[in-house]
Amino acid sequence: MNIKELDPESSPQAAFGARLRRLREERGWSQEELGSRMGYSGTHLSSVETGRKMPTLRLARRADAALGTGDSFEREWRSMRQGALLEGFPEYVEHEARAAEIRLYEVGVIPGLLQTPEYATVITESAVKRGAITTEQAHERLTVIAERQAALVRASPPLIFVVLDEGCIRRPIGGTAVMQDQLARLVEFAEQPNTVLQIAPFDMGIRRPLSLPVTVLTMPDRSLMSYAESAQRGHLDREIASVLPMLTTYHQLQAEAPSQAESVAVINQARKGTP
Questions:
Q1: How many Cα neighbours within 13 Å face the side chain of 27?
Q2: What is the number of helices (H) and of strands (E) in the chain?
Q3: What is the pTM of this model?
Q4: How far apart are CA 188 and CA 210, in angstroms?
Q5: Which of 28, 53, 99, 104 is the most exposed place for a label (fewest CB within 10 A)?
Q6: Within-domain flag for 131
Q7: Is residue 143 over pLDDT 90?
């Protein structure tokens, strides 16, 4: 894309890049010079300025520091992300990255924290084909998934408890190779010392206390919050009066579901194509 042809009005991503370029040029800096101040290559900044590459939170913060713009680029980035993600979800992701314990229950689809890049790509590309999101928003969603997974690989990783409805491993997403790799990823996840993975089988019936996806976070100070989504937005709940019963229900779900060893056996059977 020729930088002179970039229309700042075409998208929030283009507006971010155009503003970065304008402020850089006002200071008489080349892309290489600003890149050096920010810890990026001039080529990388060129891609951001022309809208070819989605800026990250790290880049936005470093742009603010290098250009002396307070937190305006960070705020612009957060506003831009709101357009690509469900309302309320970016706030949840910030808490998830700091949580001491993560408990989640998912129905129908493997949750983002456990998705392979190929599985995630199939889902986002499908949303683009339906016209639900743009190509740029799909790229941002994939970036967020990668950032969320990377945030969990830290010196003191959180304890992660996952219960998946059996439909998550039975529902075909992409081709056979995509599902095989995704199921293998689940087995690898279960082998980690800080994780517990269980499959809630179809035959649990009414013994299953949850029917909708839910996430409960335990923060380092032991405070609790839950997160759930509707079709329109995500909702983060910090009220202990409503979060504590959700945690109790989650424990009941774990108690009713098969053990991790039994669940991994079910996953391996699915990998072999056996019921």
A1: 15
A2: 12, 6
A3: 0.70
A4: 26
A5: 28
A6: no
A7: no
